[in-house]
Amino acid sequence: MFLCAVARPRGDWDGKVGIWPVVKNYRTQRWSRNRPAGIDEVHPVTMAREIDRDMLINDVIPAIKEKWPQAQKGISIRLQQDNAKPHVLENDAAVIAAGCSNGWTMYPLNQPAQSPDLNCLDSSFFSSIQSLQSQTRPRTTEDLIEEVVYAFHETSADTLNKTFLTLQSVMLEIMKCGGSNTYKIPHLHKDKLRNAGKLPITLPCDVQAYWSARAAIMGPFLVPSNQDASDLDVFLY
After folding, report:
1. What is the pLDDT of residue 99?
2. pLDDT digit string, tens, across residues 213-233
3. Domain regions of the chain by residue span
4. All residues at 6 or more sequence positions from 168 whose CB lies less than 8 Å from its CB, including other chains
5. pTM value?
6. What are the two backbone dihedrals, phi and then psi, of residue 170, each rounded to the nearest 5 degrees?
């Protein structure tokens, strides 16, 4: 198992925060035909909340602070995870304290339930890594880690940027269908748009879909009459 963290590419940063294997070092006790006794091996371990908390505090958050464009340090950063039980809760005090130190603002956030399309890693990034990693045949855990880390670094910023654009389209479709998962992921023809130099940064948000979604969450309220789609694009970035 690996813990992988990415953000949308911005400026001269490719958006890749890092990827870390969930493993422990183990000293072999017995001799076998594959290795002698008394050497260090890497063994995978099952993710647990304590492990997740430790990796967020000691690996993910420091990597974000190191790589995130310093000009955007003041914005609020959401550390989205899926709803797996071993992951920390949204109100985890230790993670929040680590994320909100030294002028940063980072909070853990759970992925909405039954919504795998809202996970940019699952939607396309992991498949990109898998296609690269599957070209080799690792024989040991160390070999597998090396290949996965290599595939992670070989995945282009362009692929990651397109993944987040797909995520925007999914958010829009969920809003249009009232929060359900009965939508189909639209085909944006991103490669064609990119080749023509017309790949957008954000997708325009339908005004009615936006206010309908807010009303469904917050209840009826007065809808401003002087906003158009361009005023709402920023929430998708």
Report:
1. 96
2. 888 888 765 555 555 555 444
3. 1-111
4. 202, 203, 236
5. 0.82
6. -65, -45
3-state SS, residue 132: helix
Q: Which residue has the tokens 């809003």?
A: 175
CB-based burial of residue 115 (10 Å sphere; 0-12 exposed, 13-18 middle, 19+ buried)? middle
Residue 24 tokens read as 């422990």
- 50-106 confidence digits (pLDDT tens): 999 999 999 999 999 999 998 888 899 999 998 888 999 999 999 999 999 999 999
Please tell me the least confidently modeled range out of 4-18, 164-178, 209-223: 209-223
CA dist 143 and 27 (Å) reads 17
Q: How far apart are CA 230 and CA 227, in angstroms?
A: 8
Of 167, 186, 49, 176, the C-alpha closest to 116 is: 167
Helical residues (DSSP H) of the chain, grouped into ranges: 49-55, 61-67, 93-99, 120, 126-133, 141-154, 157-176, 190-195, 207-218, 229-232
Query: Helix or strand or coil: residue 35?
Result: coil
Residue 53 and residue 94 in contact, taking contact as beta carbons nearer than 8 Å = yes
